[in-house]
Design brief:
Layout lengths: L1 H27 L2 H26 L5 H25 L12 H23 L1
Helix pairs in contact: 2-3, 3-4
Length: 122
């Protein structure tokens, strides 16, 4: 009986902590960062679906899987970098980088990434 009460109290504490974290995120995160976070979630979902398809269905042609999955990973890294640079709380770390410059770097990096991905497809 004691272990079940401990597990239920730990579960409720976790639930309270998660709901407080979510409320803080909704209230304090700028809309620009929420939009970037939604794109990051989409990229993760895309990569997971590609991996699951490769494992469960087929990996033929394998270079197509590698290109698609590496595109997801590369785009995630570029988007996470963009999020870090446009976050107002990180302004002291990126003093010389304006949000416009960060987006231009992101766009150029994405073009270069997808150029290599397209060429890897064959």
């Amino acid at each position: 009986p004691k272990s079940s009460s401990k597990s239920s109290s730990a579960s409720s504490e976790t639930s309270v902590a998660v709901s407080a974290l979510w409320k803080s995120y909704i209230d304090q995160t700028p809309d620009r960062l929420k939009f970037i976070d939604a794109f990051l979630a989409f990229i993760v979902l895309s990569g997971v679906l590609q991996f699951v398809y490769c494992v469960l269905v087929t990996n033929y042609p394998f270079n197509a899987f590698l290109a698609g999955f590496s595109s997801s990973v590369g785009q995630f890294v570029l988007t996470a970098s963009l999020r870090a640079q446009v976050n107002p709380e990180n302004r002291s770390e990126f003093k010389e980088v304006s949000p416009e410059r960060a987006f231009a770097d992101f766009a150029l990096g994405s073009i270069v990434l997808h150029f290599f991905v397209f060429n890897f497809l064959g």
